[in-house]
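Entry 14. Two folds queued back to back today. First construct below, sequence then structure tokens.
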Amino acid sequence: MKIVLASNNAGKLAELQAMLVPLGVTLVKQTELGIGGAEEPFRTFVENALAKARHASRASGLPALADDAGLCVDAFGGLPGVDTAFYATQFGYAKSDDNNVRALLEQMAGITARRAAMVSTLVAVRSAEDPEPLIAVGRVSGEIATEPRGSNGFGFDPVIFLPSFGKTFAELPVEVKNANSHRGMAAQQMMGLMRERWL
């Protein structure tokens, strides 16, 4: 089965392709089909992921899978949330992973309550009008480290410290990260849902 991935993020594509190998599905990035990004006007991960999946399916005529993920920091009332990718821009930095990390560490300076969670919401639709989208959510709680550590991964991985491992996501081997990350948890749930309802 061919499924269009409603994302232009190379890191997400690589992670999800590796995680979904057991299903035997082929993920095709929407840009390879000439499909631009969808509008993401909503304030929740699930609404944005659903909008992205429906957009990609409508434009391609294929089933679609979308991920909306982000960082939810307790000290900031759950923000940046759906605005995670653009976090640095509100502080005058250009949009980039490194600048997001820099801005987060600056905003967290002097804050001792550093609990946060990475959340991934995957939504899959058989068609643009699918009345029964598959929805899977993965959530990993941790703490914001005081400085970046590790070189694996992308996004906020260098500053998401996981007490259970004593390491940041970026310090974990890729296979360990994928098995224990928010996206990995959501992908496992999604595979179960696809096996049960689609395959």
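Second construct, same run, same settings:
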Amino acid sequence: MRIARFTTGDDPRFAAVGEDQDGQTVLAVLEGDPLYKPIQLTGEKIALDEVRLLAPVLPRSKVVGVGRNYVEHASELGHDVPEEPLLFLVPNTAVIGPDDPIILPPQSEEVHHEAELAVIIGRIAKDVPPERVPDVVLGYTCANDVTARDLQRRDHQWARAKGFDSSCPIGPWVETELDTSDLAVRCTVNGDERQSGRTAQMVFDVPTLVSYISSAFTLLPGDVILTGTPAGVGPIEAGDHVVVSVQGIGVLANQVVTGE
């Protein structure tokens, strides 16, 4: 199932994403919350072009990032591949949804795109063995781990560089059934391909990452895990149209604007 979070101008609601008999995308509205309450179809259906899609989850706790999880990406930045997953935290205030603007932070002059597969946690998870990871995952979505590269170098840690408001676009929806072992991950900027990799190139796969992270701290429903980015990261500027796609999920598009 694909689960979207949307609004028509009122409170956010959830829907199952499908197609009508003409092949047009429609949302079958759900009652409940897939993270906290049982869900069921209400019978109401809305065309996709009549709604505004929101970030498919709004994390109440945290976003956990994984650095240097693709060998070629680590190499392009002049870093070694870590022996264990390299973790960092992103505040939930950084999360935005499809078509929301990426606002360039005024403190930075070098902001990069980073296309990624994101994991959405569906249950409280602590010390989860790799073979049990599917039991605690709600699903998967696309993400852009937008990074102020100059702040990252200057600060010698990643809080400002990866945690500024609007630095974590996710969407367009959550795909609940997906084999993540070998998916295409791409990024285009203004139609030009910048990144093209596959999750099979990850140093640490999804079960390993979720297990490792849950051994460090408790994961809560709605937590987002960013699984790392393939090679090809590069600068984005005001006016750019950035599109991240992950095979089997869909497309996440955002416009870049200048911060004040």
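Quick look at the second one. The radius of gyration is 18 Å. The mean pLDDT is 96.
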